[in-house]
Every structure is written in structure tokens, then in C-alpha cells.
Amino acid sequence: MDEFLNNVNPTNDSPTPISLLLKLHTVKPFNCPSLMKALFGIWSSQCHFPVSVSEHVDGLFLVTFGCEGDKGRVLEGQPWHFAQSITIFAAPESSFPITPENLHYVPFWIQVYGIPFMCKSYELVRFIASEISDLIEVDKDTVKEGTRPYLRIRILLDVNLPIRKGMNIRFIKRGREFVKWLDFKYERLPDFCFFCGKLDHTKRYYRAYL
To answer: Which parts of the sequence belong to the Zinc knuckle CX2CX4HX4C domain (predicted)?
Structure first.
């Protein structure tokens, strides 16, 4: 008679928490309980299930959601602010510990102004995005001429680098070559330093003036 031995170790049937790690990108001192209370209040009104925000380790916070849909809504709504400083998210990884230094990418919508008439195109979108960072998506309606006075693109911004206020682009129109300065307007941009262009401090905390 054959004998079946069940040597499989019992598994933990509890569901994996749906969570994100969060960092507040700032050199300014801030109140942790106030941050947790503020973000809890904002996200609880937009999510279908309760959201919890708790202190984690190394200055990080743990945000736990009731469903993947709520997590997606918070990520899609980026960037989020507290006290005019930006928040940065990352998914917890058991095999690769997340440290505050690893968190420095945030999606932003940028409106690009100053594009000459009949010069909007997806090629221009890709070129502009390649000069800034990775392209996430394009507001297709703004690529059409006569709809908006700007191109609207969503890019993944490295917030450790100074933000760009615009760029010069060489255009060729009807056989004529010319250079045009394009202005960038960042939607929901928090406070930043007008001296160096970085987002983690303002003029008051600029190291050269401390």
C-alpha cells in the first residue's frame, strides 16, 4: 500500500497588505502626526475604503489601503503635498529594502507654452520629454491645433535635479529655421528654491545663504 506523507509546510493565508511607502521631500522640519492626519483626511474622502498612514522607519511612512483601486487612485492623483512639500511613493520590496535616498521620482503634468502655430506633433512631445525625463502620457486633445495654447504632457520627474523652466528648440517652418523658447508650467508644483530650482527647500533653506 502506498503511503502519502504531507510534508508541505503550512502557509499563511492572511492577505498581503496593499501598501505604499511614502517620503516627504523636504529639508525643513515638519510635524509627523500633522502629516499623517492631513494625508489621512485627504485620501479618506477620495478612497472607497479606510486608509491608514503610520510611521515606518528611517523617516518613511507606511500608507495602507483597503483595495488596489484606492491605491491606484492615490498614485494617479500625484503629486500630493504637505506643507508645500512634495510626497514621493514606492512599493515596499522585501528583497530590496527601500531607503529615503531611493525615492526621488514623481509624476508631473507639464504645460508647454510658446509652440509656434502648426508645429505641435507627437514627435515634438517625445523630444521635449526626452530632454526632461521619461514620458508617461500625453493629453491628446492638446496636440491638436486650435484646442489649447499649450502641449500637456505627463513625465516622471527626478526631484533631486533642479526643475527646468523651459528650453530652446530649433524649428523649421516653410523652409525657415528659427529658435524658439518654450515655457514650462508645472501643474500642482509645490514651493521650490528660486536660486537653485530644487524642490526640497525654498530660498530660506538654501545652503549658500544659511
So the answer is: 157-205
Say how far apart CA 23 and CA 9 lie, in whole Å.
37
**CA-CA distance, 107 to 202, in Å (whole number)?**
21
Nine cell digits for residue 141: 486633445
The pLDDT tens digits for 29-83 are: 899 999 999 999 999 999 999 999 999 988 899 999 999 999 999 999 999 999 9
Cell of 194: 528660486
Residue count of the chain = 210
In whole angstroms, what is the distance from residue 175 CA to residue 157 CA? Answer: 35
Q: How far is CA 198 from CA 1, 69, 161, in A?
A: 74, 32, 6
Q: Give kind and range of the element (H or E) at residue 133.
A: none
Nearest-angstrom CA–CA distance, 150 and 112 = 5
User: Which residues have C-beta within 8 Å of that of residue 54, sequence separation ≥ 6?
Assistant: 36, 61, 62, 64
Model confidence at 11, in pLDDT bands (50, 70, 90)? low
